[in-house]
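Anyone? Bumping this.
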Amino acid sequence: MKVAFTLSGAQHRLLHASVPATFFGLAIISQGVFWALVGLSATEISGSAGGPGIPLAAVHVLTLGTFLATAFGATQQILPVTTLQNAPSPGQGWALLIPLLGAAVLLPAGFASFHTPTLYGGAALAAGAVGLYTVRLVTLIRGAKEGTLVGVRHYLWGAVAMAVAMTLVAILLVGDYSRALLPDHTAGALVHMTLAAYGLMGLLVLGLSNILVPMLVISQPPDRDDAYRALPSALIGLGLSVTGLLSGNQPLVLIGIGFGLVAALFHSLLMRRILKARMRRRMDHGLPLMIASWVLLPLSLLAAGLAAMGLRVEITAPLFIALLLPGWLLSIMTGILQRILPFLASMHTMRAGRAPALVTHLTWALPLRVHAALHLSAVALLATGLLLGQSGVIAGSAFAGVAGAIAFATHGLTVLVRTRRHMARSDACPASSTKPSGSSS
Amino acid sequence: MFNMFATTKTGQTLHGEHQSTLATLNDIDDLCQSRKAPNPADPAMQARLASIARILEDDVTRHFAYEEEVLFPVLRDAGAAMMVEMLEGEHAIIRPLARSLRQLCLTAIEQGTFPPDNWSELQTLGMELVERETFHIQKEEMGLLGALSQILTPEQDGELASRHPAHRP
């Protein structure tokens, strides 16, 4: 028998409930704030050339408040479970949340007002949060037991590298507002976005999808070769694009985007195979959004290619950002998050001798259907508004997006309330805890 | 696709049983979605109900018994008492659900009909069993099977796998 290896038990691999609740709560609220800011800046967004203002603030509310919050919260929970390590302590969780929350407020405020002290404060907090997360991620990767993180490990190392590079560029960009640190600020901003969205977030999504999607749809995880098939193209694409942007070499950028499309194709095909082989046939909540994201990723790259070629840049540049951020990333994040919330809540209701709450009993299906419809409509309207240069259509997308975000928040609150109700009933009368704690519809 | 749990024979065996159980759970789920009670007098429906009853007996009784009598003591000795307790607790909840559902299926076959109360009871039990057992399998796949390669030596793995009913001569 292999001795001196202690499995500390499922409970020790769960973060204290308050930690994921607040990370995911921040993500949910930020989604609504993003769309509200889109609505406020509808006339600016169409034909926008970038730069400080409400649109850039909106982008950073989404990237920091929703994407990083979801990624930080999810990886701190998933990785300890799958790698057989103890979860971070509540203190460690809060230590990461606080700078992220501060950054998600100050940095967008700084961009909206172009108040450089606020911008610097937000940037410092963002750099601190990402730095802390990077250290946490490295610790979790290095502590992973042998045989775990199959088909995921190299993606995570790639994400670590992207996080460092992205943060360095971000610091230069913010500093460039006061003194000329960069020869071309716009190119620097595009590099930062590439490293952040396709780099850090993209590699996390590609890697963790190899664990999460099979788990959520109950399918076999891919083997190592299949799982890593997209990685070389993704890394080459990122490297070439960034080099091309920094050197003003358009053909290099386009070749990089080509490699990105290859990576996206491999990823989509793998996800399709996993979905096809799922053992639970019923198409549960979240899958339509995940499937939409696998289409929006290559579409964003195609739009990026058109922008890189200089074709109607006033349209293709904001279009590429719309397909990338609220399109691909927000779709996959909300598709997965809506499944994780009740799953994780159910895990937290496990008590010795008592039935855990059923996931369906913690979930109210109607808000999720409403959110999916409104979110996809919002993305479609945003893309249409940008293509046609119609600020009214963009404002319509914001309305749909805010309404969808409210529906998603309703889902989150429902999970919270029903979980508490189950726990209260379970504590008061253990024998009754086998009965359904609520209804699902 | 290659099975990541093929690193241990025990894990591979249990994973295979999970797949078989999930196929049955899919069938139960499909059955329970029907608004109208099916006709157990129909030979095809009889065969379906009989198959569900048989697999519930095999999967739940045999699979759970193997885990509790053979595998869990080894995990407890390795320091995984909390995980074992959690899984045993879930077995204790799932077992009566499976037994009741099995009995309803057998009664329907015997009587050739579903009394209204029995059909709605089967739907309720069926949907709860599908969900609880699916969640249980998800946890075992993610937590238990992945841990086996950390806990078992190759010799132990071989010995435990040989004690599984599927491998006994």
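Late reply, but here is one note on the structure posted above: Residues 391-428 of chain A form the longest helix (38 residues).
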